[in-house]
Structures are given as structure tokens and as C-alpha cells.
Amino acid sequence: MSMFKIFDVSGSAVSAQTQRLNVVASNLANADTVAGPDGQAYKARQVVFQTTLMGEVTSAGVRVSNVVESDTPGRKVHDPKHPAADAQGYVTFSNVSPVEEMVNMISASRSYQNNVEVMNTAKSLLMKTLQMGQG
């Protein structure tokens, strides 16, 4: 594998983790919402990653193939005075778990940082190789 392919592979991972972080941010922003644009409570979303070949059989990257909604039921709170309460007085909130989303955010952030570090290390090795050729 060419040293330059490392940038393609790590770059694809950085791009995928960026999309993952955006989905986590959206989930966290809607964690306490009651109804979305369609009148239903917000549903947590998760990214689905897929391996993708990077030109050669020997190198593979990653991409986001889909963003799926969770089918977990939303949290129900008894509040008969709330305008969005149902006939029994329950309000259905989103199914976002802030704790799970924070763990997901930390994982995505670390993956992002690791891939940036891989690119920086590859750059450093390439620069040292060029310096050896000059000396």
C-alpha cells in the first residue's frame, strides 16, 4: 500500500466520524423535545458504517451508508396540564438517552482524534523521508 493511501483511509474515517458527531449533536439537541415537525416525538438516529474499497484490494476505508431511526419507545411523563398530553394525561418525549449519546460522542471524538494522529504521523514520516533524500 502506498503511503499516500493512508491519507485516503484516515480521511474517510474522519469524514464518517464527523457525520456521526453531527447526528449525536442533533440527538442531544432534541433529547427533551415533545413533538417534531410531523407531530410525533423525535426519534434518536444512529449512523451505519460501511467498508469501502479505496482503489486497491489492499486498502479499505469507511463511509456512512445510512442513518437509521431508533424504534425504542419514547419516554412517557404524566403531566395532564401539558398541551401535548394524550387522553390519559401522558406526554411522550423523544427516545434519546443523553448518557448513551454522550458515550457515543466520546467514542466518535476519540476515533476522529486517532485518525488525525495517523495522518499527522504519516505526514511526519513522509517529511523525514524527504529530508533523508536531501542530506
UniProtKB/TrEMBL annotation:
Keywords: Bacterial flagellum, Cell projection, Cilium, Flagellum. Pfam families: Flg_bb_rod, Flg_bbr_C. Residues 8-34 form the Flagellar basal body rod protein N-terminal domain. InterPro entries: Flag_bb_rod_N, Flagellar_basal_body_rod_CS, Flg_bb/hook_C_dom, FlgC. Belongs to the flagella basal body rod proteins family. The basal body constitutes a major portion of the flagellar organelle and consists of four rings (L,P,S, and M) mounted on a central rod. The rod consists of about 26 subunits of FlgG in the distal portion, and FlgB, FlgC and FlgF are thought to build up the proximal portion of the rod with about 6 subunits each. This is Flagellar basal-body rod protein FlgC. It comes from Pseudaquabacterium inlustre.
